[in-house]
Structure prediction request, 150 residues.
Amino acid sequence: MVKRVSLWDAGCPVARGLDVIGDWWSLLIIRDAFDGVRRFSEFQTGLGIAKGTLATRLRILTERDILELAPASDGSAYQEYVLTEKGRGLFLVIVALRQWGEDYLYRPNEPKSALLDTDTGAPVARLELRAQDGRPLNWNDTRVKKIEDR
Prediction:
């Protein structure tokens, strides 16, 4: 088995982000946390993930301050996993991945889940990247200023 290489000290924010959330189980755990899943058993049942794998991913997400343990909301002796501010900051990442999947991974008219505005019940608007002056930007309208470009 190949040992995973850490990207934690990389000069690229994308690489560092992937070091924290770059495996699909972690992203699915985060997705489910946004959907209100809080307990180990709920994650395990909903995802069909092995308990050991789930325990490892939850430990890493907790160590990296994406999730935190909190007393159970129902007053029981259990603890629950809740998204931290840093974890809630991943919402747009999850939405962008969802919208990309909707655009490219479904046949026309194939049923899929939908992300809805809780106030109106309407589907949420598409994410757009915008310049500081409000202009929409595409991939070829941007460039990365690398550290050595100072």
